[in-house]
Specification:
The chain is of the alpha+beta class. 65% of the residues lie in helices and 14% in strands. It is flat, with a radius of gyration of 29 Å.
Length: 394
């Protein structure tokens, strides 16, 4: 490897590793503190969030820190006339840019993998930590605020003695055919059963009220609540955004088959009603519901088709950031790396991110093709090509 290329890559690596470490640590701390505050997570469980939040932090910090390192190194070389000297020797500036582009390409592949890990393994890991700590979270909030609520229930207490809840009022929200119920007891205790994935709440000496229509007393009573319902964390569910890339093609095939079956069912139903002369039944609330269901199926398919493009385009932002950053830093010939960085990052902030988010929304709604999410990268590629031509010519 020529000495000049080794010199550039060594400088880039040092700046990139240092800045990546600093920014990633800050992002992990912010992510952990955010989850700990939102969920009132006890300190003992906070440390378990770190490995799951790390991929989410890296998918953000790698492109930005790579752009920062690129502008620092090439801005310094251009500002001290090193690039001018290289051109005077008959060496094209592309000769010093392409090694960085190769490195950015490899980092782009790594970032795609991190994007996949962050939205699947990372989010599910955070959810798992919060579910396993739901008992401690509930007790922590009851000690400080005397109340705790989740989507399925709410509980208020007068005080806590050890693990005992003194004079608790427990409201189990209505769900489906199950009515709302309110328990008022002398004391209660909560215990998480991770084998059964249940939060068990045992009441002693209390009363039960079922929506004011039925009341009764009991010496002891136990209520079992699924840990997923007891947690305040948002469940990732089966959204395409949390599926690993490896399973998305099979999910696309299943979704297309489901749409085809549903359309056949609607066609058969419409044909039957037409043959029976039930023309008025072909319009109205019933068929509106069928159409909404079909639209839901189709939108889920659009989301599945968009997701791989979204992750790959986000990962390859590393390559396009370097493409724009290196040429801009050389063209500006500004020794102040912060000026070069912000002059590079501002167009990215104003053009790339809005274009990407708008394209993702359009692709998920089916108004543009899934590959349209590459629009932001395409704009950066064209802008970088314009700048590279100016750098090479002048």
């Amino acid at each position: 490897m020529p000495k000049l290329i080794r010199y550039i890559l060594a400088d880039l690596t040092k700046v990139f590793v240092l800045s990546l470490t600093v920014f990633t640590v800050l992002m992990v701390i912010i992510g952990v503190v955010r989850e700990a505050v939102l969920q009132s997570l006890p300190p003992a469980q906070v440390i378990w969030l770190v490995p799951y939040i790390l991929p989410q932090a890296l998918q953000v910090t790698i492109p930005v820190t790579l752009l920062l390192a690129t502008t620092i190194v090439y801005g310094r070389m251009s500002g001290t006339n090193e690039v001018l000297a290289i051109k005077a020797m008959g060496i094209s500036p592309m000769r010093i840019i392409w090694p960085t582009l190769v490195g950015a390409f490899l980092l782009s592949l790594l970032t795609v993998w991190l994007n996949d890990i962050a939205v699947s393994w990372g989010r599910q890991g955070v959810q798992r930590v919060l579910l396993e700590a739901v008992e401690e979270i509930a007790y922590s909030m009851l000690r400080t605020q005397r109340s705790y609520s989740s989507p399925s229930f709410a509980i208020n207490v007068k005080r806590i003695e050890g693990r005992k809840l003194i004079l608790p009022t427990f409201t189990l929200h209505a769900r489906g055919n199950t009515p709302a119920m309110t328990f008022v007891a002398q004391e209660a205790e909560m215990r998480a059963d991770h084998k059964e994935n249940m939060l068990k709440v045992v009441f002693r000496r209390g009363t039960i009220d079922v929506e004011g229509r039925l009341t009764g007393t009991f010496p002891d009573h136990e209520v079992d609540i699924p840990l997923s319902d007891a947690s305040r964390a948002d469940s990732p569910g089966a959204s395409p955004s949390v599926l690993p890339l490896a399973v998305i093609p099979s999910q696309i095939l299943k979704q297309r088959e489901a749409i085809e079956r549903y359309e056949q069912q609607l066609a058969a139903r419409a044909a039957y009603q037409t043959l029976c002369g039930e023309f008025d039944s072909l319009v109205g609330p019933e068929w509106d519901g069928y159409y909404r269901q079909l639209l839901d199926y189709q939108q889920n398919l659009h989301r599945l088709l968009t997701e791989p493009h979204r992750r790959w385009s986000a990962g390859f932002s590393c390559l396009f950031f370097v493409w724009v950053g290196a040429s801009t830093a050389i063209w500006l010939r500004n020794h102040d790396f912060m000026t070069s960085f912000f002059l590079c990052f501002l167009p990215i902030l104003v053009v790339y991110y809005p274009a990407m988010m708008g394209a993702v929304d359009g692709a998920k709604n089916g108004t543009i093709p899934p590959w349209g999410v590459w629009a932001g990268n395409l704009l950066l590629g064209l802008g970088g090509l314009f700048l590279v031509r100016k750098v090479v010519r002048y």
